[in-house]
Each structure stands twice: as structure tokens, then as C-alpha cells.
Design a protein that fits this description.
Layout lengths: L2 E3 L3 E3 L2 E3 L4 E2 L3 H9 L3 E3 L20 H14 L2 H10 L10 H10 L3 H15 L4
Antiparallel strand pairs: 1-4, 1-5, 2-3
Length: 128
């Protein structure tokens, strides 16, 4: 990891003025940082850019409430959370059931979860 000199540094008979960017052995960089003679430099490869938030759908109130009721009826919180994760819905791990339902609907995954539930119900119905 590169470091920036916070004061003049002498290393291997070389002088590095304040502001110089140096790449040394890890233990030497750590020693200079500990002495507050240098600080780590954040490079582009170390910067982690968060993934973009999923696109939220705009949805009319009637459809939202219809989907909400269907999800509420078909899933308990644990099953809903598991299926939502499988479908790629992003939500906090400690989210309440209503928050998960909202995330499912706004992230456009309600139909996918409700189709799966309908398919499961059809598979379990007696034939005849």
C-alpha cells in the first residue's frame, strides 16, 4: 500500500520531502505510519463502490394493496424473507414482514414470488 510522507523522510540514503508518495516494504510503511511520519494513501483499487440500489417501481395504490394482501396471505415472515432473497430483493436482515413486502413490491419481484406460491399450490392439489 502506498504511503504519503507527512514530513521529510530519509530511507536508504534517499530523502523524500513532505507530500511524497512512497511504496516500501509493508513493515517499513507500517513503522512510518505508527510514527506519524506518513499516512496511507487510498488508491482507486482500494475504494469500494457500493452496488447501485435496485430500481424502485412506481405503482398505483390499488395494485400495491392487492399485491401486499396476497403476499401477506401466502407467506409468513421467514418464508417471505427466504424467497425474497432468492429473487434478489434487497432488504435489511432484521426487517419486519411489512418492510420485506414493500421491498418485494417496489423492487418488482411480487409477481415472481406470487407465481412461485401459485405453482406450489397447484402441485399440491389432488388431481381428479
Amino acid at each position: 500500500m502506498p504511503i504519503e510522507a507527512l514530513e521529510m523522510i530519509r530511507h536508504n540514503n534517499e530523502k523524500y520531502p513532505k507530500g511524497s508518495i512512497l511504496s516500501l516494504a509493508d513493515n517499513e510503511e507500517a513503522r512510518l505510519i505508527k510514527l506519524k511520519a506518513a499516512k496511507p494513501v487510498i488508491t482507486a483499487e482500494k475504494v469500494q463502490i457500493p452496488a447501485p440500489a435496485p430500481a424502485l417501481k412506481t405503482i398505483d395504490d390499488d395494485l400495491f394493496n392487492e399485491l401486499k394482501d396476497a403476499l401477506e396471505e401466502n407467506y409468513n415472515r421467514a418464508d417471505l424473507a427466504r424467497e425474497a432473497k432468492k429473487a434478489g430483493v434487497i432488504f435489511e436482515t432484521d426487517a419486519l414482514k411489512n418492510d420485506i413486502i414493500e421491498a418485494v413490491i417496489l423492487q418488482g419481484k411480487a409477481d415472481e414470488l406470487l407465481e412461485d406460491e401459485e405453482d406450489d399450490e397447484q402441485d399440491q392439489s389432488p388431481e381428479g
